[in-house]
Design brief:
Length: 244
């Protein structure tokens, strides 16, 4: 967006305060020229207290969806709190990875100069597809080939970073690439391999109603791309961890 158009759209803090939280946040995102796709993290543009406002806004809109579905949210005691529950689930749980900053991760230099293949996984993945907001449940394996300049992070941190990336509406191919970017930037390994295998509930619950399909995606970088032996070692260790 050009500066002139932005100027035309300029709003004072006072004006912003009168807007719903989602519009305020969107205004900041557009001003900062930041993408806000379903799988983007927008936490840097959310101020204190605004998540609570967002939750109330989503609950209100969700109530409208139930109304349009002709569900009697007053008479049906099972549905009376559904809008609030769904809003809380979206904002605080299943899409939380959009709204909170990346979990803090302490990196430490590779003092002992580890240069052996390291595998983390299977890490349980809970996500949702951007197309239908249906659950995606699966597993991720991460292979790291460190060098003496790599920053190492604790094993549990891989799980937390993975969860942060996956707790957004995602597309599996983009999710593995996003996870690879985060790990590449932080750990700076010689090689990085990620395999994700997941069950897409939009295939079971709707559409083709196929119960067998599991989708597998992988990203291979650096040493894993160059070295077929390393790739094989990773895949066979992954398979053996899978059996145990
Ligand atoms: Zn879907």
């Amino acid at each position: 967006m050009s500066a002139a158009t932005l100027q035309g759209l300029f709003r004072s803090e006072k004006e912003l305060d009168r807007l719903p939280a989602s519009e305020r946040i969107r205004y900041r995102l557009i001003g900062a020229d930041c993408r806000y796709h379903a799988n983007d993290n927008i936490s840097a543009h959310i101020r204190e207290g605004e998540l609570e406002e967002l939750k109330a806004e989503v609950a209100q809109q969700m109530q409208g969806v139930l109304k349009s579905l002709v569900i009697d949210t007053e008479g049906d005691h099972n549905s009376s709190e559904t809008a609030q529950r769904v809003a809380k689930m979206f904002v605080e749980e299943v899409f939380r990875g959009r709204y909170v900053p990346m979990p803090s991760v302490t990196e430490f230099p590779n003092f002992s100069r580890l240069n052996e293949l390291m595998i983390v996984g299977p890490i349980k993945v809970r996500s949702a597809c951007s197309h239908h907001l249906c659950p995606i449940i699966g597993r991720v394996w991460i292979g790291i080939m460190p060098n003496e300049f790599s920053n190492l992070i604790g094993l549990s941190k891989y799980v937390r970073i993975c969860d942060w990336v996956m707790s957004r509406p995602q597309i599996q191919e983009e999710a593995v690439t996003m996870l690879a970017e985060e790990l590449q930037n932080r750990v700076k390994p010689d090689g990085l391999a990620i395999v994700m295998e997941a069950d897409h509930f939009c295939m079971h619950w709707r559409g083709v109603k196929d119960d067998e399909s599991v989708m597998t995606n992988s990203v291979m970088r650096g040493a894993f791309l160059r070295d077929a032996n390393l790739r094989r070692e990773f895949l066979s260790l992954m398979a053996s961890k899978n059996r145990s």
